[in-house]
Amino acid sequence: MKIIVVGAGGDIGKAACKELQQRHDILTVGRSAGDYLVDISDLNAVKSLYEEVGNFDAVVSCAGDAAFVPLADMNQETFMIGLRQKVMGQVNLVLAGLDFISDAGSFTLTSGVLDRDPIRMGSNAATANGALAGFAKSAAIEMPRGLRVNVVSPGMLDVSSSRYGAWFRGHKPVSSHDVGLAYAKCVEGALTGQVVIVD
Q1: What is the CATH number of the domain that holds 108?
Q2: CA 135, 157, 9 angle in degrees (round to 5)?
Q3: Residue 167 pLDDT > 90, yes or no?
Q4: What does the alpha-carbon distance between residue 150 and residue 114 come to, in Å, rounded to a whole number?
Q5: Domain that holds residue 172
Q6: Which among 30, 100, 125, 180 is least surrounded, fewest beta carbons within 10 Å?
Q7: CA dihedral 88, 45, 43, 138 (to 10 degrees)
Q8: What average pLDDT does the structure give for the chain?
């Protein structure tokens, strides 16, 4: 398959690519690095990406920022970071992709652990994660042409623990290999409308 991986340069994206590139052709996309540079919060930019790529069979999104600030310091503008980048950025990949992806293709989005197991300063990310789960469940029943959509929801990766472990005290790091397998399950399997948890 020809697979577009958005956010391929991050830890989660690298785990997905490592697993999928063994069997598929991977095109990497990022804001600042990759085969293609795109801001996924811009729907027109996403459409232009798909037009440039041409035919493809799957989209894997491991992208999306959120604001990690205390709730007392949160305002509407700050809260919109997660909604605009993590939620709408990934939703844009699906909405724009419906006209371009091959029949029976798939979209795999990424949420995270924080809507299931919250941490301090994680309300923006947790909200985004919950929104993505709801989107996938609902969108799956309307997808045309045998298309599928799922969400992978990983905990903090083992390779990320040196940078983020202080925020996730008591959380067991998850295997990058297992995270990669979750993306393979979504892309190569038959699931749709599901949140695949990696804890």
Answers
A1: 3.40.50.720
A2: 75
A3: no
A4: 18
A5: 2-198
A6: 100
A7: -60
A8: 98
